[in-house]
Amino acid sequence: MKRTSIHCFFLILFTFSVSILNAQSAVLASGTNASGSNGSVSYSVGQTAYLYKGANSQVLEGVQQAYEITTLSASETVSKQEGILLYPNPVRDYLYIDFTSSPFKGSEYQLFDAQGKLIKKDRISQSKSELDLSSLPSSVYIIRINQNGENLKTFKVIKK
Fold first, then answer.
1. Cα separation, 64 vs 45, whole angstroms
2. Domain Secretion system C-terminal sorting: where (predicted)?
3. What is the tens place of the pLDDT at every residue in 101-111?
4. How confident is the model over 90-99, as pLDDT tens digits?
5. Domains (ranges, CATH) in the chain?
6. How confident is residue 65, by pLDDT bands cut at 50, 70 and 90?
7. What does the alpha-carbon distance between residue 141 and residue 38 come to, in Å, rounded to a whole number?
8. Which among 66, 78, 120, 155 could bridge 111 via Cys, Cβ 3.0 to 4.6 Å?
């Protein structure tokens, strides 16, 4: 009798916990399986919708967002300076800044990570300068070239 009541208790507990769960379903626009010599993958394109059964037997639908979208900059700046080259991009170890047709005196660079945190800052001493990025992890970086406190040009750099 004691064993039966314990089983009934767990059965009721399980039934109660299942009844309060929210059901998820996928409203898909497309999807398929893709395979190649290195393996296979299944994918779908669309939005995930959820159903919630609330008080008074109401059924509500909504869309779940799986990630947050963050904007780094709201406006695009137009560069006045066309005589500055930055190469190679994407870069592995060394990045070159080349002042081809503009003076480099009084220039400096600032290197920011994708979150906007200042990583490196230094003066540019030659018209063709070399930056060592070998110690940085693979990511997207932003380099801003300043001259006498004024922003000349900003580059997006991909580090492999």
1. 14
2. 86-153
3. 777 788 899 99
4. 999 999 998 8
5. 84-159 (2.60.40.3580)
6. very low
7. 31
8. 120
